[in-house]
Amino acid sequence: MNIFLRELKANRKALILWCACMVVGVLSGMAKYTAYSSGGANNRVFDELPSSIKALLGMGDLDVTTIGGFFALLFLYLSILIAFHAALLGSGILAKEERDKTAEFLIVKPVSRSAVLTAKLLAALVNVVVLNAVTLISSVFMVRAYSGGKDITGEIVLFFVSLLFVQLIFLALGVWIAASMKSPKGSGSVAAGIVLGAYIVAEITSVDDRLDALNVLSPFKYFSYDRIVAGNGLDPGVAALSFLLAAAFTALAYLCYRKRDLSV
Prior knowledge:
Oligomer: single chain
Helix content: over 70%
Radius of gyration: 20 Å
Largest sheet: none
Number of domains: 1
Strand content: under 5%
Shape: globular
Number of helices: 12
């Protein structure tokens, strides 16, 4: 419990900063909705864009002149930022002990490595859920302010439920990377590189449907935003597989962390 509370306290300022940035991101993003929904010349510009450009911008087949389609577009960029947070948090919460030369102090405590990792994972999970919830609540309020009376709260909740699965995958992946590397100081860079690579894969497959098989490499493509906007909800099979993938990364982290020699 002491380790868990210590990690919560240590990450408190960073969490507050991330939450503030996401609220500002939602606010500034939704403030642009009036330009997309005003019609006229703006609509013609969007209609005339090549499909490849729409895909690169994250628009795809979304109708960004509607509140649901526009939020789906905004959500894509919010999800990338939040995924970076999860991956960096997962790698950093474990690697910092060796980076800051506090690993020796930690391992002499009468607790097992598994207990240490569990406490750190729980603290990281709290941070991930809080950031998700704050962004969700701010999104609901801002969408209501700009929706003109149309309620899409249910869709927004589904967006953030899908994002939570993505966060769990990248969080567990970041922890596994830090637990398995001989020099975990560079785990943050590796984790960030993987998130960026997953986003690039998602963009590539959006442009060329023949590469859809590569979507398995990008959690950003696991859940269909078009499906949510259309009112079809989340695919339960994809949700289950996402959870299993996060669990597999977590299991690998425990296995590697118990066996690895710590740098003190």
